[in-house]
Amino acid sequence: MRGWPGPPSHRRRARMPVFSRKPAETATIDDREVEALDRWFRAANYLAVGQIYLLDNPLLERPLVAADIKPRLLGHWGTTPGLNLLWTHLNRLIRQRDVNAIFLAGPGHGGPAAVANAWLEGTYSEVYPHVGSDRDGMRALFRQFSFPGGIPSHVAPETPGSIHEGGELGYVLSHAYGAAMDNPDLVVAAVVGDGEFETGPLAASWHANKFVDPVRDGAVLPILHLNGYKIANPTVPARIPREELESLLRGYGHEVITVEGDDPYDVHRQLATALDRAHDRIREIQRGAREDGQTERRPWPMVLLVTPKGWTGPATVDGVQVEGTWRAHQVPLAETRENDEHRAILEQWLRSYRPEELFEPTGVPAAGLRDLAPHGVRRMSANPHANGGLLRTPLRLPDFRTHAVEVTEPGGSIHEPTRVLGRYLVDVVRDNDSTFRIFGPDETASNRLDAVYEVTDKVFAGEIRPTDEHLAHSGRVMEILSEHTCQGWLEGYLLTGRHGLFSCYEAFIHLVDSMFNQHAKWLKTTRDLAWRPRISSLNYLLSSHVWRQDHNGFSHQDPGFIDHVVNKKAEVVRVYLPPDTNTLLSTMQHCLSSQQYVNVVVAGKQPSFDWLDAESADLHCARGVGIWDWASNDDGDPDVVIGCAGDVPTLEALAAVSILREHLPDLRIRFVNVVDLMRLQDEKEHPHGLSDRDFDTLFTIDKPVIFAYHGYPWLIHRLTYRRTNHHNLHVRGYKEEGTTTTPFDMVMMNEIDRYHLVMDVIDRVPGLGSRAALLRQQMGDTRRRARQWTREHGDDLPEVREWSWSELSAPRHGRSPSTTAAPATSADFV
């Protein structure tokens, strides 16, 4: 067999009992080019093995000894040679055809491959000068891998050319398609591992090709790498008949080009031919759409690559087959520091790549090797699309005041907040028609953002029928009933320098909890990488929220995504609970212009009161928290503080204030609204946190605080547990009680209703218990009457439905929120 002479264990072909054999396709490259490709492939494999094992002696200038081996062997070899093979051949395609391409490794645990190729291309040393292109640099490259103070074993943010870490499997295709959107000249090579193939998010993302516009978008080239095994088991696609697998892939809408074998030179010829054919097909589809106006959806090419797991590694270890089995998944030789025989096999393995042909004695890549890489930004490790902050341009945003609703007095008008936001987004979409998209799982209209259809359509490349509305091959709204795919699309879009908004039902955003984790970690890590400029924030708009699910019920009620988000690093996460329409507009304008955050905005879509005019709303959002003096009568010395966060809690808290003001006019009440949840946290814990002085100024150091919160009440305690007055803080929120019922019955079920808040005040303000006993009794009776009314009439009490903030309750209303607490300007809204 042509390839690596090496030790006998490497000369024979690896056994591949689960793969059917197919003859190689006709070669389109000559032997000289095959030799060149094989040199790069061997060099990348050598560097990958060195990263997993070696602490010193990077060029094998002497026999390996125990001290040359890392004390802890970490990494994943099994998928790495396949990734190196693909990088090698994509470089050929880029060089010969001037292709603008980036590389996404679905099996991102093959991190040694991405690092090795970035070093060979020279990018790694450009980004990290201490890892130079010589012997010392190679030693540093090896030493840092999975080593304390070094780099992770995955295709992490630290790796040049990466936008997809691949630590969690299932998202490579959705990231790839997000990257390709509005990048008409970009080809995104997306390697799908055959273990990853088994995941649910990956299964849904195959359908992303139905949302590609070949005129405006780039192309994704999926490459399913079938090496047969996961950590300890065979993979499903490797063990089903090949015809069945290829039929499935064709059913997903792909033209399948198969490359299979274990002879390196034969595979080189096949793969070169396959990638040429795939690229020809991509350009044919794009040319037909862009020049000839072809509108019918056509199958996009993909490559099915079948090679042994751990290819070119040790065939057997201790008499047990390794290459071509699950045993090659991680570290094939686990005792090379202690076991002389294993260390000898490792040395044979490394020498089988003939490093003396690949590197000069100084460690510099041999003459001609680096010429096999593309030049400049055409290198996949240096492509600016894989460092999206380099390409990002700010959005053109209208002043939210042009869409603000008129508020002449608090509660004097009613609007649907997200519907008004939809009018604002019309301008955003129109003015940023190649850098902004809205993503959601079939909920843009449901969440009442459908005004955007005046200037754009929903994207769909499949059959469009006369009965469809706002459906077209091109548009700015992306809808597929897969939260995972929406999240992946948006992440890919942001990571390549653009902007977006993810609109989702609050309860079901939990489906992407883990994806959010990964993105938040990416943002945290990249904040410390000066060579990665900041990208646009990931913006969630969560509507159809817990308190207004009139017809869906308990299954649609869960405000816990906020709890999940605040677990992440404070410099990355932001949570906003705008209480009305104008505060939502101000909040969203800020979020869309921000960078390097995850912004979670929770806002209702149902008709609700307008509390603040545009200027007051902007000032309140800039503060993040403040006293509403038109709802307060404390004159600087309250008997009780009533706080709230969220639109429905704000309504119930104000209704409670109106009852208290009517029946207990001498009670001094301070009303505090929180729009930026992180203001409650200590300034030492979060950049938005209030100082203890400012927090105490707002909430006092010794007075009862009754707090109505949108989500689970214990989060407020968690955020404020260090505060002086925490022992006086009583929080009402969601208690996992719900059903299909009326809006007010929902708040009563969770004891956050106005009557219960009044009872809490009576119970906690010293001296009120006896004096207000009758009022407390009336509140309990009214709660029972309200519950019975809903059961008899199917609606809320008229006094609840018809309630409004009155002059009697607010003799000073119309004034802006007080500026005495937490002084701020709009510049502080960060």
From TrEMBL:
Its cofactor is thiamine diphosphate. PROSITE patterns: PHOSPHOKETOLASE_1 (PS60002), PHOSPHOKETOLASE_2 (PS60003). The keyword Lyase applies. Residues 816-830 have a biased composition (Low complexity). Residues 29-390 form the Xylulose 5-phosphate/Fructose 6-phosphate phosphoketolase N-terminal domain. SUPFAM superfamilies: Thiamin diphosphate-binding fold (THDP-binding). Keywords: Lyase, Thiamine pyrophosphate. It holds the Pfam family XFP. It comes from the Bacteria. Its EC number is 4.1.2.-. Residues 605-805 form the Xylulose 5-phosphate/Fructose 6-phosphate phosphoketolase C-terminal domain. Residues 808-830 are annotated as: Disordered. Belongs to the XFP family. NCBIfam families: PRK05261.1-2 (NF003617), PRK05261.1-4 (NF003619), PRK05261.1-6 (NF003621). This is Probable phosphoketolase. The lineage of its organism: Bacteria, Bacillati, Actinomycetota, Actinomycetes, Propionibacteriales.
